[in-house]
Amino acid sequence: RPFTARHPGQSCPVMEIKVVGFVFTYFSLCLISCEENNFVDGDELKLFDFLTNNSRYDVRARPRLENHSLPLEIHTSIFVYFIGNIQAQSLEFETHLLFRHRWKDERLTYTNLSREIKLIEGEDSFSKNIWTPNIFIENERESTLMKTTRDSMFVRIHDTGTVHYHYRLKTVVLCDFKLGRFPHDTQNCTIRMESWSAPNSELILKWENPNPIGENDFSQPEYKVLRIRTREATTVYKEPGENDREMSDLGNLPWLVGRKINGNYSTLMVDFILKREIGQYVIEYYVPSMLLVMMSWVSFWLDPNAVPGRTTLGTSTWLTFITLTRSTGSDQLPKVSYIKFIDIWFLVCTFFIFFSLLEFALVNIIWRRKDTAHMKKLTSGHILAEGMKQIGRAAFTTPSVSRRNSTTDTESKKSMSPFSRRVSRDDRFGSKNSVTSSASFGCNLLSVTSLETYLNAHSDDSDDDNCDTLTINVPVKNSFENGSGQVQGNRLWENVRQRLSREKKEDDQTQTDSTPKLILTEEKKNAFLGEQFQEMTYEEIAVWLDTRARVIFPLCFLVFNLMYWTLVADNNIYDLIAGEEHEQ
Q1: In what order do the strands lie in the sheet with 444-448?
Q2: Plot region of 579 (φ>0 → left; ψ -120 to 50 → alpha; else → beta)
C-alpha cells in the first residue's frame, strides 16, 4: 500500500493496540497471581501439578542455574543396609543401598505461590514428572530397584526449589579381589557412580558434607567391614587418535575408550574395606595341618627296621593332609597366577611330611648294612658323611650283593669269641686313647681297646710260654671289592700293622723273663693312639640320624611358623617382599 503521511495531531493505531495488550496482560497476570497465592496447606498435590504442568515445565530439560555458565551440582549420600554374598570365584558382592540425591531446580520454586506450603512430598509418581539425574553404577553386574507393592522411591521439593530424590537399590557389583594374602587378605571393593550423559561441564557429582555414608548395624560371617570411605574423581572418555588439549592436561585420570560420548564425566566412588575373618581357617585348617605334620614325626621314635609301621604312618599322614586341603575353600577361589599365603603353608607342610618319609627311607637303607663303619672321629660331620657314603653305595649296589655282604659280615661276627664281641660293643664309644682291634696272644683271640690297659692286664698272666710273638690284627678299612670278593686294605692300616710288629720284635729282644712283654715308651703310645680309628655300626648310625631328626624337624617347623605369622601380622613386611604398595 502506498505510504500515507500522518498529520501532527493524528494518533497511531499500532501504539494503541500495544498499550491495550500490555494492560490486558498485566491485569491477567495479577489475577493469576492472586489466584496462585491462594494455595494453602493441604493443596500440595494441586501445587505440584501446577508446577509440573507441561506448559511451564519440560521434564526433558536439565535445570539451569541463574549463572548458566556454572554446572549443576548433584549432592549425593548413601545409606548402606547390607553387604554380603561376597563371591571371590565370580569376583562380585551384593549390597543393598539407599541413594539420596539433592539438587536445585529453580523451575520448582514456589515461594511466591504459597506462604503456608513449605514441602511437597511424593513417591514414584512424582519422580516421573520432574527431571532426575541419570546416574549409573559403572562396575555393576546387575541392579534392581527394590520395592514391596510399589517402587521404593521418594521425592521432596522445598519452596526454594531444592529437590531431594531418594531410592533403594539392590546391586551386584564387581570387585577386584587380590588374593595374595588369602586367607589373611583385606579387600577393597569399590562402587563407582557416574553421570551417564552430562559431562562435568554441565553436571558435577559431589558427596554430601560432612557424613555422606551411613550404615546399618549388620554382621557378615566371613568378612568384617573395617571402614567405608568416599572419593571424588573424573573419568575421561577419548577415542583412539583423538588429540584433545583439554583431555591431555588432566594428568593421571583414568582413560576409557569407546564407552560413550567423549568427554570428562564426574565420578563418585565409595570404598568398602573388608577384612576376612580367619577363625574358621585356624580351626579347620591350620591346627589340623600342624597336628598332621607333628604326627609324621612320630616315626622318628620307631625302630628304623619297623618298615610296615613307619611306612603306614607316613603315607596315611600324607593322604590325610591332601584331603584336608580340599576343605579349605581354595577350590572356590579363582585361578590366579600368583602364589597365595595358603599355598605357602600347604607347600611347606607337604615338604615336612615328605621329608619325614624320605628320612625313613634313608635310615632304613643305612640300617640294612650289617657292618661296622670306621671313622677318624665320632663327630656329627663324620657320622653323617659315612651315612651318606652308605646311601651312595646302596644306590649303585644290587640287592643280591648287599645281602651277600651282610651275610658275610654276620658270619664273621659270629666267629668272634664272646669276649671279643662284648668288648667291641662295650667300648665302641671309648675315649680318644682307645682303638678297637683284634689281638691274638698265643691261641687266644682278644679285642684290645687300649694298649696300656691290655699290657697292664696281661703282661704277667700269660699261660702260653711258647708264644714268642704278639700279633695285633688291625681292622682294614674297606675301599672297594674286586671281582673275586677279596677286600683290599687301606695302605695306612697296613703301615700301622707293620710298625707294631717291628716294635713287638724289638721289645721281645729286651725281655728277661719267659712272659712276653710289650714295652712302649710314652711317646710311642701317644703316636699310636693318635693314628687309631673309631667305629660305629651302621645300625647305630641309623639310630643317630633318627635322634637328630627328632630335634631338627620341630626346630625348622618352629622357625617357619615364626616367619609365616610375622608376615601375616605385619603387612608392611609382606608388601616389601611382594613389591606391592599397601593401600592404607
Answers
A1: 444-448, 437-441, 470-473
A2: left
Rounded CA-CA distance 439/451 in Å is 10
Cell of 578: 611382594
| Separation of alpha carbons 191 and 176, rounded Å | 11
Number of CB atoms found within 10 A of residue 455's CB: 17
How many other C-beta atoms can be found within 10 angstroms of the C-beta atom of residue 100? 18
Kindly report the number of other CB atoms within 10 A of residue 445's CB atom: 15
Phi-psi region of 574 (alpha: psi -120 to 50; beta: other; left: phi over 0): alpha
pTM: 0.64
Task: Measure Cα distances from 96 to 156, 220, 301, 336, 465 in Å.
Answer: 22, 14, 59, 29, 111
- pLDDT one-digit tens code per residue, 243-257: 555 455 555 555 555
Q: Which of 210, 493, 484 is nearest to 374 (CA)?
A: 493
Distance CA 349, CA 325 (A): 11
* Closest to 190 (Cα-Cα) out of 155, 232, 145: 232
pLDDT tens, 19-33? 656 555 655 555 455
Angle CA 466–514–444, to nearest 5: 45
DSSP classification of residue 283: I
